[in-house]
Amino acid sequence: MIFQREDFSPTVAKEPWRQYPAYSNPKFEMNIGSCVIKGNSKTRLVDTGLEKLDHGIDQPVRETLLSELDAFNIIPNDIDIVFLTHLHMDHVGTGMVKDNGVWKPTFPNARYLAI
User: Fold this and answer.
1) Do 107 and 69 lie in a common domain?
2) Are 79 and 107 in contact (CB under 8 A)?
3) For each successive 10 residues of the chain (115 residues), what is the average pLDDT?
């Protein structure tokens, strides 16, 4: 994801950013990830990341969570539990999908837990 520095931390002045060269540009890229845990006949997902939705955040073209799961032969129905570490958009953005104008869980068989 590419953030505008001011959007990421609007209350921090420009001066403190100078000590962090990676974030010194007006825009900077940040990786957002998810993790799959398989075992005991369960498939668990930690965070759903930020899908390519109309959320106003610039995202370079990258693989989506669903295509990455598919590469490991995991389909949305396989996920038993979704752990959400916190409720920021970049951690929950793929947790729901719009289907014929109605928001539904992306992982319909999963129990969603905010931890």
Assistant:
1) yes
2) yes
3) 65 76 67 85 91 56 79 96 88 86 94 93
What the block records as the tokens of 70 is 């598919």
Question: CA dist 84 to 4, 27, 48, Å?
Answer: 25, 27, 7
Query: Which letter does DSSP use for residue 93 in this model?
Result: T
Alpha carbons 112 and 32: distance in angstroms, whole number: 19
Q: What is the CATH number of the domain that holds 43?
A: 3.60.15.10
The whole-angstrom separation of Cα 27 and Cα 4 is 5
Q: Are 72 and 36 in contact (CB under 8 A)?
A: yes
Number of domains the chain contains: 2
Cβ atoms within 10 Å, residue 5: 16
The total number of residues shown for the chain amounts to 115
User: Six-digit token pair at 48?
Assistant: 């759903």
Q: What is the CA radius of gyration of the chain?
A: 16
Q: Taking the model in full, what pTM does it have?
A: 0.70
Which domain range does residue 58 map to? 32-114
